[in-house]
Structure prediction request, 65 residues.
Amino acid sequence: MPPKLREIIKELEKAGFINRGGKGDRRNYVHPKVAKPITISGKAGDDAKHYQIKAVKAVIEESRR
Prediction:
């Protein structure tokens, strides 16, 4: 079973990403070491899509470099 969006958001915030807001159910997270922001769309209780999980892992890895 895929994780919930709230769990991915916790991982992003733990890695130092900051929510800069967004419209509707979209949230844009930025990090000083990552060039492009990552957008997470959906309600916090929704299941995360496979591409969202992959993108979050990639940007967290990029932020550690």
Q: What stands out?
A: The first strand starts at residue 18 and ends at 19. The chain has two helices and three strands. Helices lie at 5-14, 50-63. Residues 50-63 form the longest helix (14 residues).
